Amino acid sequence: MHTVGDAAEDPAREQGPVRPYLDDLPMELWGADETAEPRSDSPRRSWWRAVLPVAVALALVGVFVAVLPSLDDTDSGSPGATLGAGESVPSLASIGDNRLLRSGTVLEEVRCELPELGSDPERLRAFYDAELRCLERAWKPALSRAGVEFAPVAVDITDDPATACGELPPSDEATGLYCAEDATIYLPRARTLEAFGLTQEAHIATLAHEYGHHVQHLSGILDDANAQLNRYPAGSPSDLELGRRVELQANCFAGVFLASAVGRGSITDEVGDAAVDDFRNWIDSDTHGTSETQRQWAARGFRHGDAGDCNTWRAPGEDVR
C-alpha cells in the first residue's frame, strides 16, 4: 500500500484557483415515478422540467442552510415509503449495506500510460480514452469479485452533445455530467478547457470522479438513492444531504482508483497527490459539500485504497457537510 495519500490530507497545502463544481449528479437520480406529485423546482434547475418528463429531481444547487437532521432508519417515520406493490424504499443507512461497500474491495494495481494532454479535440479525446481504459482495468475485477455485472461507459467531449438525459445545463452552471441512461460521461471540450485549462491532475481527477458515478450506477447504489427522493422535499436539508452523500462517495471512489494507479506510468506519486488535492479546488456547495470535505473524501479513498472505506451512507452528518 502506498503512503503518499497521507500527504494529500495535509491542511497546510496551498489551495489552487476555485472552480465551479460539475453538474455531474448521475441522471438516474433525476428520473423516478412519473405518476408521483411533482416537486418544487430549484431556480437554477427548472430547465430540466422542460427536458425530462420526470416527477422528482434532486436539486443540485441548494438555497437553504440549516442544521442537517439525522438520516438513519427512522428518518421518515416508517420503514419505507411505498413505490409499488410490495416494493419499499430502503433507508439511507441500508444503502451502506451494498455489497460493493464491504471491506476489502481493493482495485487492481494498474499502470496508466497517458498521452500528452492537449487542447485540440484529438489529443483531449486520446487522453480521456487512455484514462478510461485504465479506470476499467482497475474497477472491472473488483466489481466482478463483488458480484456486480460490469458494463462499459463512454466519454463524449463534443460541445453540443445530444444526451439521453436531455440537454446539458448552460455552461455557466455546469462543466459536465454523467448520464446513466446512455452510459456516457459528457465533458464538453470548451467547458472543460475553460474550467481546467491543461492542468493534468484536474482532468484525471474529474474523469475518475465521473467514473465513480458509473460504479454507483452499476452497483445499484444509485437505484437505492433514487428511491429516497420522494421522502424529502426538494431543497430540504435531507434532500441536499442525500446529494452530498452521492457526490462525496464518487470523490472517494476516485481516490480509490488513484491509489491503484499511483507510482506507476503517468500517474506518479506527485501527480496522484495533486489529483487528490485538486478536489479542494471545487467550490463549496450545499449539494457537493465544502471544498475541504470534498478533498477529504477523495483523500480517504486514496489513503485506504478500499471502496469499503467510501461508505458515505453510514458516515455521520458532520462528515458529509
**E-strand count:** 5
Topology as a string of helices (H) and strands (E): HEEHHEEEHHHHHH
Radius of gyration: 18 Å
The percent of residues in helical segments reads 25-40%
Indicate the low-confidence ranges by residue numbers. Answer: 1-21, 25-87
Average pLDDT metric? 77
Count the DSSP helices.
9
**Number of structural domains:** 1
Structural class: mainly alpha
Main sheet specs: 3 strands, mixed
Any idea what the shape is? globular
The order of strands across the largest sheet is 3-5-4
Instruction: State the separation between the terminal residues, measured CA to CA.
Output: 29 Å
Strand residues, percent: under 5%
Describe the protein's architecture and organization:
The chain crosses the membrane at residues 47-68. Helices cover 36% and strands 4% of the residues. It is mainly α and 321 residues long. The chain has one domain (21-29, 99-315). The strands form 2 sheets. A 3-stranded mixed β-sheet has the order 3-5-4, covered by helices on one side. Strand 1 (82-84) and strand 2 form a beta hairpin. Helix 3 runs parallel beside helix 5, helix 5 packs across helix 7 and helix 5 packs across helix 8. Residues 1-21 and 25-87 have low confidence and may be disordered.
